[in-house]
Write a structure and sequence with these properties.
Distance between the termini: 36 Å
Largest sheet: 8 strands, mixed
Shape: globular
Oligomer: single chain
Number of domains: 1
Order of helices and strands: HEEEHEHEHEHHHHHHEHEHH
Strand content: 15-25%
Structural class: alpha/beta
Strand order of the largest sheet: 1-2-4-3-5-6-7-8
CATH class: Alpha Beta
Length: 305
């Protein structure tokens, strides 16, 4: 439980702030892919072993620009916006992570990519886990960063944490409460889950707040959380039916956020788990310490290659 408290303790730290840019390198193309009853906005580029990057709540695929710019030198890099978020379409439903694993499979099929390495953050961890559990033959390595997975390990304890009240916040009345106030709502996450809130720059806040103010975006965000109960049922069923993941898993926590608890969680779901820590960072690893995050991820993807 002491390690779990690392997730709840968001202390202040200090390194150089990151100037955020949201333009992917020229090597990337964009495409809107119709799949699984919706349309997913995807950036992709490069050549070599394929890496799929999945973002979380409060951001979009744009969070991955520094990592994508590094990996595209020698990898095929695929960066979608999750269902309902960013520039992807805003369907009414389908936000359980099992269904979103179908979105991922459809995107990869459309790009003629059979096997990938996964790098995921926040809700991206949950979508990535469902994809890896269902399509085990398609995932060769898996990096999960700074968020739990529904139904896995100490999930019920995590749900009791009052800091995570937003897991149960949603519905039409809540959508009305935040309509026109998306920036106020999102600032709460960017501030409280940062080690140093100033590193989540004003430019980044304006960029993401504008995307989350698009029609249907806040509904989609609330729906991602509302699906957690079903996600927990599905995730437990994957493990009961097929056992733990056997691929190499890198469980990475922000030093001043989830920390080593990431590895503790993932050892309930995978047999080959390596622990990683992004130093001097809270939850928003690509905003707070992108240099260390890129180095950690690249080193793991290239290990024993």
């Amino acid at each position: 439980m002491k390690m779990f408290l690392l997730f709840l303790t968001l202390a202040l730290g200090g390194t150089q702030a990151q100037a955020t840019a949201f333009e992917f390198p020229a090597a990337f193309e964009t495409r809107d892919i119709a799949v699984n009853g919706t349309t997913i906005h995807v950036r992709f580029g490069g050549k070599g072993p394929a890496v799929l990057l999945l973002h979380g709540y409060g951001e979009t695929g744009d969070m991955w620009v520094p990592l994508a710019a590094d990996l595209v030198r020698d990898h095929t890099v695929i960066v979608p916006d999750l269902r309902g978020l960013g520039l992807s379409a805003k369907p009414e439903g389908g936000f359980d992570k099992k269904n979103q694993a179908g979105d991922v499979a459809g995107v990869l099929d459309a790009l003629a990519v059979q096997r990938v390495m996964l790098v995921t953050h926040d809700i991206g961890n949950m979508v990535g886990f469902a994809f890896a559990a269902i399509h085990r033959e398609r995932v060769t390595r898996f990096v999960l960063i700074d968020a739990p997975v529904p139904g896995i390990g100490p999930w019920e304890d995590i749900l009791k944490n009052p800091l995570l009240w937003h897991f149960r916040f949603g519905g039409p009345d809540m959508e009305r409460l935040v309509a026109g106030r998306e920036r106020i709502y999102l600032d709460r996450f960017w501030n409280e889950f940062s080690a140093t809130p100033a590193r989540f720059t004003e430019a980044a806040r304006q960029h993401y707040a504008k995307l989350y103010a698009r029609p249907g975006a806040m509904h989609s965000g609330f729906a991602q959380f509302a699906a957690f109960d079903q996600d927990a049922i599905d995730d437990r069923a994957y493990l009961q039916e097929n056992g733990k993941l056997s691929i190499p898993v890198y469980a990475v926590g922000g030093e001043k956020s989830f920390g080593p608890m990431m590895a503790t969680v993932m050892r309930f779901a995978a047999t080959d788990v390596t622990e990683g820590i992004v130093p001097d960072s809270g939850h928003w690893i690509m905003e707070e310490n992108p240099t260390a995050t890129v180095q950690l991820v690249r080193a793991f993807l290239e290990k024993n290659r």
